[in-house]
Amino acid sequence: MGLSRVRAVFFDLDNTLIDTAGASRKGMLEVIKLLQSKYHYKEEAEIICNKVQVKLSKECFHPSNTCITDLRTSHWEEAIQETKGGAANRKLAEECYFLWKSTRLQHMTLAEEVKAMLTELRKEVRLLLLTNGERQTQREKIEACACQSYFDAIVVGGEQKEEKPAPSIFYYSCDLLGVQPGDCVMVGDTLETDIQGGLNAGLKATVWINKNGMVPLKSSPTPHYIVSSVLELPALLHSIDCKVSVST
């Protein structure tokens, strides 16, 4: 492929390389089954899971105040109490949380075609996994999908002073690989973090994974390239390299 102009590719993890959203939905379905079969909840089971999903989407985690396990168990505890009333039920909340968590981790896998793509790309360029999120949560995902061996380095936002889209985490990633921002491409599914961060740091290119054909807001950052699947990346990188070769 001869990717002489692109020296490194940074990959997001969640919903870029692994289907985090799908795995989470499967976890919620298992909790619904538990609540309905063991505790005889009816429509309340789905309501509780929907409430937890909203709480997760608005989650603000401060490691100095609590641990992620306590915080997320509290999401379930609050959702159960809001739906069913009565006294708080921490034991049931813990049961729901750990079932949801274990189920979703079981379904966080790298597809065989993604493994093959990463293996081939790594013969040509350096690869770095750059993921936002709380340290424990992201490290558990990385362990679950067994992706460590496909990357030259892994950077977790929760272990750094700043996360994407701050330029500092991109500069740190460049230093780890011994490359310059202008040598690198950022690939991810989130415009506000992956793409904006790559633009902020002055990377060679940003690639937005838009699986569902979403139309972004006019105020959203504009990626250099848009693809519907991460598997389109090798051909895109080749075209980027060819454009650079023609212009030099």
Automatic annotation (TrEMBL):
Cofactor: Mg(2+)
Gene Ontology biological process: CMP-N-acetylneuraminate biosynthetic process; N-acetylneuraminate biosynthetic process
Domain of life the protein comes from: Eukaryota
Class in the EC hierarchy, top level: hydrolase
InterPro entries: HAD-like_hydrolase, HAD-like_sf, HAD-SF_hydro_IA, HAD-SF_hydro_IA_CTE7, HAD_sf
Signal peptide (residue range): none
Enzyme Commission (EC) number: 3.1.3.29
Reactions the enzyme catalyzes: N-glycoloylneuraminate 9-phosphate + H2O = N-glycoloylneuraminate + phosphate; N-acetylneuraminate 9-phosphate + H2O = N-acetylneuraminate + phosphate
GO molecular function, one term: N-acylneuraminate-9-phosphatase activity
Keywords assigned by UniProt, alphabetized: Carbohydrate metabolism, Hydrolase, Magnesium
Family: Belongs to the HAD-like hydrolase superfamily. NANP family.
Official protein name in the record: N-acylneuraminate-9-phosphatase
Species of the source: Capra hircus
Gene transcribed to yield this protein: NANP
